[in-house]
Every structure is written in structure tokens, then in C-alpha cells.
Amino acid sequence: MIIAKRLRILAVLLVLAALPIRGEQAVSSPPGTREEQEKALVEFEKQRSRAIWNLDFETLDRIYAEDFRGLVSGGRFLDKTAVFEMFKGHDPSIRFSVDDLSARVLGSTAVTHGKITGRNPKGEVVLLSWFTHVLDWRDGRWQVVEGATTPGNPG
């Protein structure tokens, strides 16, 4: 009897400990309707693309989570630092465009997809790839936590 009573008290204490403190939200979630969130994520991807082109690492640092991990061709995984180094090494004569953007919101997680096309000064396609990003709503903003690219055939 005493053990059962102590177990009930322990269960109540565990439930109380899990409740949010006054003014604190239990789970943060992005504002707006799902449609609005998805539209905002398409714009987010355009902003990310511009930041890469402009080597705006202050913006990129906010976009990419500290624990980011990306899968690139050849099956290599890169962390945030390695991805930023890769961005620094892009050929400035190649003009990139990001097209076919789409987003899907799944609560506080989202997935985006897009196509990257790189053209040389003659306008010839020299790079074609598709990407997928997984984003998490953290600290009141979307952050890219996972990414993967697949190479396409530019010819």
C-alpha cells in the first residue's frame, strides 16, 4: 500500500515536471497556415541561394543549424563548416539559378526541394543537380538540419 502511494506521488511529480513553466510554450511552431509557411519556405530557399552567391556567411550561419549534415555526390557527408568551405570555392564565372522550388511543412519540420542549374559565360549548362533539405523550426526560425544533392546530366 505504501509503495503504491509513493508510485502515484512519483507519477504526479513526473507529470508536473513535464508541464511548461508559466509563459513558456511546450513546443514552438512556425506562424501562419501551412500554405503560408510553405510559400515562406520557397522564399527562404531563394534567400539561401542569394546568400551563397554573395558569400553572406552571416545569413548562412543563421540558416544552417550548428548540427547540419549534408550528403553530396559520391556519398560523402559534410558538416556545416565543410559546406561553407565548399561555398567559398565556387567559380564566380558560373551563374547559378534555383528553380522548381517546393516545400512541404510537417508540423515543426519541413522539407524543401529544388533544382540548381549552373551556366558558364557562354550560357552553356555546366552543372545540374537537385537538392532536398530538411528543416526544423528552432529558436523562432527555420534552420536547415539535413541536406542531400543528386547530380544531373547537364548535357
List the helices and strands and how they pair.
Layout: H1 2-18, H2 34-53, H3 57-63, E1 64-72, E2 76-79, H4 80-88, E3 95-106, E4 109-119, E5 125-138, E6 141-151
Parallel strand pairs: 1-6
Antiparallel strand pairs: 1-2, 3-4, 4-5, 5-6
Can you offer a commentary on this structure?
Helices cover 34% and strands 39% of the residues. The chain has helices at residues 2-18, 34-53, 57-63, 80-88; strands spanning 64-72, 76-79, 95-106, 109-119, 125-138, 141-151. Strands 2-1-6-5-4-3 form a six-stranded mixed beta sheet. The longest helix has 20 residues, at 34-53. The model is unreliable at 1-27 (pLDDT under 50).
List keywords for this structure.
alpha+beta, 155 residues, six-stranded mixed beta sheet, 39% strand
By helix and strand content, what is the structural category?
A: alpha+beta
Number of strands: 6
Instruction: Enumerate the strands of the largest sheet in spatial order, edge to edge or round the barrel.
Output: 2-1-6-5-4-3
Rg, alpha carbons: 21 Å
Secondary-structure element order, as H and E?
A: HHHEEHEEEE
The average pLDDT is 84
Q: How much helix, percentage-wise, in residues? A: 25-40%
Produce a short descriptive summary.
The protein has 155 residues and is α+β, with helices and mostly antiparallel strands.
